[in-house]
Design a protein that fits this description.
The complex is a heterodimer of chains A (about 280) and B (about 300).
Chain A (H helix, E strand, L loop, with lengths): L1 H24 L1 H26 L6 H29 L4 H6 L2 H5 L5 H33 L3 H10 L2 H29 L4 H12 L6 H4 L3 H8 L11 H7 L7 H25 L8
Helix pairs in contact in A: 1-2, 1-6, 2-3, 2-6, 3-6, 3-8, 6-8, 6-13, 8-11, 8-13, 11-13
Chain B lengths: L4 E10 L2 E11 L2 E6 L6 H8 L7 E6 L7 H7 E4 L11 H10 L5 H14 L15 H13 L5 E5 L7 H16 L3 E6 L2 H7 L2 E6 L2 E6 L1 H6 L6 E7 L2 H8 L5 E6 L5 E6 L2 H13 L4 E6 L4 H8 L8
Parallel strand pairs in B: 3-7, 3-8, 5-6, 6-7
Antiparallel strand pairs in B: 1-2, 1-4, 8-9, 10-12, 10-13, 11-12
Helix pairs in contact in B: 3-4, 4-5
Classes of the chains: A mainly alpha (about 280), B alpha/beta (about 300).
Chain lengths: ~280, ~300
C-alpha cells in the first residue's frame, strides 16, 4: 500500500506539472488573470477618484467596502467564472482538443488522474485568486498612513482578516472547482449547467434558510471574516449579501470539504467510465 | 509475455451505430494485422482492447489483464492511435518525457528512455522542436516513439505506417518484426495490403463490424472454398502444359500468363493438382517454378470483402 501511495504521489506530481503549464500559460489564462485583476483595478480606481476629488478615504468605510466587494463581486463573480474557466476545461478542454487519450494510455488509475488534474486546477486558481486578494489588500492599505495600517493589522485583527479572506478564496476554489470539474465531465455543453449554478447561487439570499444551505455561497459568506453590511437603500446589494442564518465557521468549512469530497467521488465514478469518442463531439 | 488477447462475444454499439458485433477472437504473439475497409471495426477493436472504449456486451482479456485497469495494462502495453492531435505547446522530447513521468519514473530514467525512443524512430534531431511544427510523418513517428518508449510487451498500432517515407517504413517494419521475434504481441491495422503480406504472422479480416476470417493468410485462403486456388506455373511450353492439364478433371481453368512464359491455373483440389503436375513434369515439360498466385492478403481480401478495396 505504501508503494502505491508513493507511486500515486509521483503520478499526481507528473500530472500537475503538465496541467499547471496549461492553466498558467494558455490563452484561457488571460481571462482568468483579467478576472483576478478586476477587483484590484476597482480599488486602484477608487483611490484615484478619491484623490482626484481631493477627498480623504475613511479606513472603516473602506474595510467595509472591501468586505462587500469581496463577497459580492470577487467570490460570486470573479472566482466563480475563474473556476469555470480553470476547472471545466480540465477534462472537457482535452476532449475538445482530442488529447485526453494520452492520459488514458498511461498506467495511471483514472482516480489518480482526476486527483492530479483537480489539484493542478486548485493550485492555479488559489495562486491566481490568492494573489489577487493580497493585491487588493495592498491597494486598500497602500493609501493609508503606516500608523493606521499597523493599528489595523496588529490591534484590530487585520492579519486575521487577511487569513480569513485567503481562506474563503481557498474554499471557494475548492467548492466551485469540484462542481465545475464534474460538470465538465458530465455535460457536453457545461456552460448551461454553470449558468444554472450561477442563478442558483445568485438567488440564494432570497431562498428559504434550508435551501440556502445547499448553496456554496452560503458557506462562503458564513466564513467571511467581515460581514458585508450594505448601506441602507442599496437594496440589490442588501439582497445579494444577506445571510439569513450564518453557519458557524468550522461547520461551514467542514461542509465545503464534505461537498468537495462528495462531488469528487461522483467525478471519480464518472472518469472510471469515460470513453474516448471524439467523433461524437 | 505469454497469453493471448481474448475477445469473448464482444459487441460495441455507438448509440444505434454498430462498431463491432459478436467478436470472438484469440490473438496470439507475433504480428497480427487487422484488415478491412473504412468503418469495418478495426479501430473499434483496438480501442476496446486498450480500454479507450468499453464493450456494450462481452468481455476482453489482454494477457490476463482487463482493459479497464489502465494502471496494469499500460505497464505492458503501448498504443499508437490514429488521432492526429497532441497536447498543446509541447516539444517532441517533452511529449515523450512527460508521458514516461506518468509511469512514476524518475527524471533520469524518463530522460534515458525518452532519448532511446526518439533515436529508435529517428526523431532525436527534431525532439527539441514543438510538435505543432512537425510534418505528418514526424507526428506519426513521435506517436510511435510514445507507444514504444516504455518497452511494452503488447504493441497496438492503428495505421502506424501512414505518412512515413519508404526508408522509415522499412525501418519501422523491421522494428515490428524484431518485437515479434522477441515473442511480443504486435497488433497493426492497415489499409495497405502488400504490407500485410510483408509483416503479418496472422490476419484478422473485418467488414461491417464482423470478423470475416482470422488466422495465417494461407490458412484463411485455404478455407475459401468458393474461389478455386490460382497457381502460376513458369515453364518452357505453357500451351502444351495447358493441353495436358485439361486432360485431368481437377483443373477448372487454365490460361496463358500475359508474358507468354507461364500458365495460370485454377483448381479446387490443389493437393491432387500438385501430384499430377509431378507426373507431367516427368513427361518432358520443363517446369521452372510453381507458386500459389492468390494466397496473399490482397486476394483473400478481394474474395472475402470484394468491392470496397483498400490501397494495394
Amino acid at each position: 500500500m505504501n508503494g502505491n501511495w508513493k507511486l500515486w504521489r509521483a503520478q499526481i506530481a507528473a500530472i500537475m506539472r503538465l496541467e499547471i503549464r496549461k492553466s498558467f500559460l494558455n490563452r484561457r489564462g488571460v481571462v482568468i488573470y483579467l478576472l483576478a485583476l478586476m477587483p484590484v483595478i476597482i480599488w486602484v480606481l477608487h483611490i484615484f477618484v478619491m484623490r482626484a476629488r481631493g477627498r480623504q478615504c475613511n479606513f472603516a468605510e473602506d474595510t467595509h467596502m472591501f468586505a462587500m466587494i469581496f463577497q459580492f463581486f470577487f467570490v460570486r463573480l470573479f472566482i466563480f467564472f475563474g473556476c469555470v474557466a480553470v476547472f471545466m476545461n480540465l477534462f472537457r478542454g482535452e476532449v475538445l482538443q482530442k488529447s485526453l487519450h494520452y492520459y488514458f494510455l498511461a498506467p495511471v488509475r483514472r482516480e489518480v488522474l482526476l486527483a492530479g488534474k483537480f489539484f493542478a486546477g486548485l493550485l492555479a486558481a488559489v495562486t491566481i485568486f490568492g494573489a489577487s486578494v493580497l493585491l487588493q489588500i495592498a491597494a486598500l492599505l497602500g493609501h493609508f498612513d503606516s500608523t493606521t495600517v499597523s493599528q489595523y493589522l496588529y490591534q484590530s485583527g487585520g492579519f486575521g482578516h487577511i487569513i480569513g479572506y485567503l481562506g474563503v478564496t481557498l474554499f471557494a476554489c475548492l467548492g466551485y472547482g469540484s462542481v465545475f470539474l464534474a460538470m465538465g465531465m458530465f455535460f457536453r455543453n457545461p456552460l448551461i449547467p454553470a449558468a444554472v449554478v450561477l442563478i442558483w447561487e445568485g438567488i440564494s439570499s432570497i431562498l428559504p434558510a434550508t435551501l440556502q444551505k445547499i448553496t456554496i455561497i452560503h458557506y462562503l459568506q458564513s466564513l467571511a471574516p467581515v460581514p458585508a453590511d450594505p448601506p441602507k437603500g442599496a437594496i440589490p446589494l442588501q439582497i445579494l449579501v444577506f445571510v439569513s442564518d450564518r453557519t458557524p465557521a468550522p461547520v461551514a468549512a467542514l461542509g465545503l470539504c464534505v461537498l468537495t469530497a462528495a462531488v469528487l467521488v461522483v467525478a471519480a465514478w464518472r472518469v472510471r467510465r469515460m470513453q474516448i469518442d471524439y467523433a461524437a463531439e | 509475455m505469454t497469453g493471448e488477447i481474448v475477445f469473448n462475444d464482444v459487441s460495441k454499439f455507438y448509440g444505434d451505430v454498430l462498431g463491432v458485433n459478436r467478436v470472438n477472437l484469440a490473438i496470439p504473439q507475433g504480428i497480427t494485422s487487422l484488415v478491412g475497409p473504412n468503418g469495418s471495426g478495426k479501430t473499434t477493436l483496438m480501442n476496446l482492447m486498450t480500454g479507450l472504449i468499453q464493450p456494450t456486451r462481452g468481455s476482453i482479456d489482454v494477457c490476463g489483464i482487463r482493459p479497464d485497469e489502465p494502471e496494469k495494462l499500460f505497464q505492458v502495453a503501448g498504443y499508437c492511435t490514429q488521432f492526429d492531435s497532441f497536447p498543446k505547446g509541447l516539444t517532441g522530447y517533452q511529449f515523450i518525457y512527460s508521458y514516461l513521468r506518468l509511469f512514476g519514473m524518475t527524471h533520469a530514467d524518463a530522460d534515458r528512455r525518452t532519448v532511446a525512443a526518439l533515436e529508435r524512430v529517428n526523431m532525436a534531431e527534431a525532439a527539441p522542436r514543438k510538435i505543432a511544427g512537425y510534418s505528418k510523418g514526424m507526428r506519426q513517428r513521435i506517436k510511435l516513439a510514445q507507444a514504444i518508449a516504455h518497452d511494452p510487451q503488447i504493441l497496438v498500432l492503428d495505421e502506424p505506417l501512414n505518412g512515413l517515407d519508404p526508408l522509415v517504413r522499412a525501418e519501422t517494419i523491421a522494428l515490428f518484426r524484431s518485437y515479434a521475434r522477441e515473442g511480443r504481441h504486435v497488433i497493426v491495422s492497415t489499409h495497405i495490403l502488400h504490407e500485410v503480406d510483408m509483416i503479418s504472422d496472422q490476419v484478422i479480416l473485418l467488414n461491417g463490424g464482423y470478423i470475416l476470417a482470422e488466422g495465417q493468410i494461407k490458412a484463411v485462403r485455404d478455407e475459401i472454398q468458393e474461389h478455386p486456388m490460382q497457381i502460376l506455373i513458369r515453364c518452357s511450353r505453357p500451351q502444351s502444359l495447358a493441353a495436358k492439364l485439361f486432360e485431368s478433371d481437377y483443373v477448372v481453368e487454365a490460361r496463358l500468363h500475359s508474358d507468354g512464359a507461364g500458365l495460370l491455373v485454377k483448381t479446387r483440389t490443389p493437393e491432387r493438382f500438385y501430384l499430377a503436375l509431378n507426373t507431367i513434369a516427368l513427361n518432358g515439360i520443363n517446369i521452372e517454378t510453381v507458386a500459389p498466385a492468390d494466397d496473399d492478403a490482397n486476394s483473400v481480401y478481394e474474395y472475402l470483402i470484394g468491392g470496397e478495396e483498400p490501397t494495394r
